[in-house]
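Example S7 (structure tokens).
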């Protein structure tokens, strides 16, 4: 509808919105692929599963938004501003199409907003904080895309209306460029989120603190020397802990303790998928240097001899 209206009216902003819708369609297909492929069970070649594949396909979705949406909008806007002025025709068709698109996008946005609000409330977080820390890029992608779609429709309407009102195509070209900037911003935000997840972002800081507290509270533990977590996928956390245990423990007691702590972590934090606990002395100089290099002075209270945990 947008493409046809853009051709009929000669509006670059409407054509930019058509490219925007095309990019959104490709994005949804990529997100659907991400959801399906990331659910495959672990196998010998991928012992931690395929959870991170969701981040890969979601990253491609962000690239799609930029390549097919933002770049075309920039091109259309610059072309409109630099070429011979085009006479606008039958703008009413453009208004009707934009109004219909706004209604449809609002329905989609309300559904995305409802999901984001529900999940952020479950985590006791604001919407902004939830979107920043979310480990599933799909809700964030849909929410940002729908928000950008509504803003883009308003920009396209403004460009079409001002062109109609003044007879100057500058407004139409400017609207196209603004739509391109909007899409580029969304693509950058989603790309950065998926990049961090692909590299191996740590788990939710609240969960990390809870894991550390559970391990430190064990009667056999003298100190939690080092704790590393990584997201293996949506709702899948890898936990690697180095713990200084009571030296009086025998080998069998130490084994049973590690098994018990792993089970407690699984029970307390359902997202914990894999747990590795390594008994270490907190006085080891190489280990101390490695932890301090990673966390700085913040780590000193956990690994300093006699400090507890």
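Recovered sequence:
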């Amino acid at each position: 509808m947008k493409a046809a209206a853009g051709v009929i009216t000669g509006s670059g902003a409407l054509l930019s919105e058509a490219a925007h819708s095309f990019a959104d369609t490709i994005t949804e297909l990529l997100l659907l692929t991400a959801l399906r492929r990331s659910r495959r069970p672990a196998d010998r070649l991928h012992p931690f599963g395929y959870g991170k594949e969701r981040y890969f396909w979601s990253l491609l979705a962000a690239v799609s938004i930029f390549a097919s949406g933002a770049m075309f909008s920039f091109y259309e806007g610059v072309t409109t501003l630099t070429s011979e002025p085009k006479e606008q025709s039958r703008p009413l068709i453009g208004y009707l199409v934009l109004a219909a698109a706004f209604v449809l996008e609002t329905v989609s946005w309300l559904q995305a907003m409802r999901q984001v609000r529900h999940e952020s409330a479950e985590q006791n977080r604001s919407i902004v904080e939830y979107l920043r820390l979310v480990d599933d890029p799909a809700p964030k992608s849909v929410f940002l895309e729908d928000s950008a779609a509504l803003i883009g429709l308003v920009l396209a309407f403004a460009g079409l209306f001002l062109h109609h009102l003044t007879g100057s195509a500058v407004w139409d070209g400017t609207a196209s460029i603004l739509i391109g900037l909007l899409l580029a911003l969304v693509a950058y935000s989603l790309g950065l989120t998926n990049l961090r997840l692909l590299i191996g972002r740590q788990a939710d800081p609240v969960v990390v603190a809870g894991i550390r507290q559970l391990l430190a509270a064990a009667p056999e533990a003298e100190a939690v020397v080092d704790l590393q977590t990584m997201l293996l996928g949506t709702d899948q956390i890898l936990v690697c802990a180095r713990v200084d245990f009571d030296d009086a423990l025998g080998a069998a007691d130490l084994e049973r303790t590690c098994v018990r702590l792993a089970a407690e972590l699984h029970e307390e934090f359902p997202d914990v998928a894999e747990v590795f606990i390594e008994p270490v002395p907190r006085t080891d100089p190489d280990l101390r240097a490695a932890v301090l290099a990673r966390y700085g002075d913040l780590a000193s209270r956990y690994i300093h001899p006699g400090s507890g945990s």
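Notes on this example. The longest strand covers residues 221-233.
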